[in-house]
Protein backbone atom coordinates (compact mmCIF):
# COMPACT_ATOMS: atom_id res chain seq x y z
CA UNK A 1 0.00 0.00 0.00
CA UNK A 2 1.24 3.43 -0.85
CA UNK A 3 1.36 6.20 1.76
CA UNK A 4 -1.16 8.34 -0.12
CA UNK A 5 -4.61 9.71 0.73
CA UNK A 6 -7.29 8.03 -1.39
CA UNK A 7 -9.40 11.21 -1.67
CA UNK A 8 -7.01 14.17 -1.89
CA UNK A 9 -3.89 12.37 -3.12
CA UNK A 10 -1.68 13.84 -0.37
CA UNK A 11 1.60 11.95 -0.12
CA UNK A 12 5.00 12.16 1.56
CA UNK A 13 6.94 15.43 1.31
CA UNK A 14 10.72 15.83 1.43
CA UNK A 15 12.57 18.28 3.65
CA UNK A 16 15.56 18.68 5.91
CA UNK A 17 16.09 17.53 9.46
CA UNK A 18 18.08 20.37 11.06
CA UNK A 19 20.20 19.70 14.15
CA UNK A 20 21.13 22.16 16.88
CA UNK A 21 24.52 22.60 15.15
CA UNK A 22 22.61 23.47 11.92
CA UNK A 23 23.61 20.20 10.20
CA UNK A 24 21.06 19.26 7.55
CA UNK A 25 20.07 15.77 6.47
CA UNK A 26 17.16 14.73 4.26
CA UNK A 27 13.97 13.37 5.81
CA UNK A 28 10.41 12.61 4.74
CA UNK A 29 7.25 14.15 6.18
CA UNK A 30 4.59 11.42 6.08
CA UNK A 31 0.85 12.22 5.88
CA UNK A 32 -1.26 11.31 8.93
CA UNK A 33 -3.24 8.46 7.33
CA UNK A 34 -6.26 6.84 8.97
CA UNK A 35 -8.19 3.81 7.74
CA UNK A 36 -11.94 4.46 7.40
CA UNK A 37 -14.89 2.47 6.10
CA UNK A 38 -16.79 3.98 3.18
CA UNK A 39 -20.13 2.77 1.83
CA UNK A 40 -20.28 2.79 -1.96
CA UNK A 41 -23.38 3.47 -4.09
CA UNK A 42 -24.07 -0.25 -4.63
CA UNK A 43 -24.24 -0.82 -0.85
CA UNK A 44 -20.85 -2.48 -0.37
CA UNK A 45 -18.35 -1.18 2.15
CA UNK A 46 -14.66 -0.69 1.51
CA UNK A 47 -11.70 0.36 3.67
CA UNK A 48 -9.66 3.30 2.35
CA UNK A 49 -6.73 5.27 3.74
CA UNK A 50 -7.57 8.94 4.24
CA UNK A 51 -5.50 11.77 5.74
CA UNK A 52 -6.70 13.06 9.12
CA UNK A 53 -6.91 16.59 7.70
CA UNK A 54 -9.25 15.28 4.97
CA UNK A 55 -11.52 13.68 7.59
CA UNK A 56 -11.69 17.02 9.45
CA UNK A 57 -12.61 18.84 6.22
CA UNK A 58 -15.29 16.24 5.39
CA UNK A 59 -16.83 16.61 8.87
CA UNK A 60 -16.75 20.42 8.54
CA UNK A 61 -18.62 20.40 5.22
CA UNK A 62 -21.16 17.73 6.22
CA UNK A 63 -22.88 20.06 8.73
From TrEMBL:
Q: What are the UniProt keywords, alphabetically?
A: Ribonucleoprotein, Ribosomal protein
Would you say which domain of life the source belongs to?
A: Bacteria
- GO CC terms in record: ribonucleoprotein complex; ribosome
Keyword check for Hydrolase, yes or no.
Answer: no
InterPro entries, A to Z:
Bacterial_rp_bL28, Ribosomal_bL28, Ribosomal_bL28/bL31-like_sf, Ribosomal_bL28_bact-type, Ribosomal_bL28_sf
Tell me its family.
Belongs to the bacterial ribosomal protein bL28 family.
Mind telling me what this protein is named?
Large ribosomal subunit protein bL28
Organism classification, top ranks? Bacteria, Pseudomonadati, Campylobacterota, Epsilonproteobacteria, Campylobacterales
Amino acid sequence: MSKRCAITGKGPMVGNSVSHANNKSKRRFMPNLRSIRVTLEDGTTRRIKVAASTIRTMKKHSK
